[in-house]
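Bump. Still looking for BRWD1 protein structure tokens.
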Amino acid sequence: MKPKVTMIAWNQNDNYVVTAVNNHLLKVWNSCTGQLLHDLVGHADEVFVLETHPFDSRIMLSAGHDGNIFIWDITKGTKTKHYFNMIEGQGHGAVFDCKFSPDGQHFACTDSHGHLLIFGFGCSRPYEKIPDQMFFHTDYRPLIRDSNNYVLDEQTQQAPHLMPPPFLVDVDGNPHPTKYQRLVPGRENCADEHLIPQLGYVATSDGEVVEQVIGQQTVDQDEQGLEPSILDGMIRQLQLEQDQRTGADQESAPNAPQNGEGTPRRG
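Sorry for the wait, here they are.
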């Protein structure tokens, strides 16, 4: 097999360079002389993650598609800590990315199964207040482009960055209780009635009809004909103003391309 470098990283003070090779070895080099100092053995598949510690020049983290996460002392060429990302009933999960916290006390990893792994010192109590499965209800909604090539949410015809804060749902699209909805930026101070999503039936790509979150409006507000939220009202007002400007532009320039979506203009 022809050796190929899959990833490269300098340590914190740039004295060492670590390279990951497709034969599953990590090599530690002297950055000034180019001398090979150590071969780090432990991975069983290709490594695409190399992260240096934010202030300790001895420490380097590596992770790969074999599900292994190593903390290395690259000055001695030894492994300090090892974690294998085994998922019950599914085998191991390939690790796609890792990052240290600025204080160097924690690091977070993401894997091929959609898990966020957080390692560090202390207890895990701060993380127990959040549900195991967290997705935004808009995560997999299709996007389209209008005549100006701007991106729009297909269902609401609105620019994604102007849409109200999304709801937190589980992997099946079921909304979490209101106490979890306040964890979403922009919903911290919402009243309880604004934290209850509107459910509806949506057809999936394979033709199956499932119940999912489809909007921001509550049943009571729908009956009363009220605006679902202040953000929704602002979005509708912006869209109305853009429609009016678009109509005026089209009257003054008959040959201009038509834009029926009413996308807010970018500055």
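Helices lie at 178-181, 219-224, 230-252.

Edit: fixed formatting.
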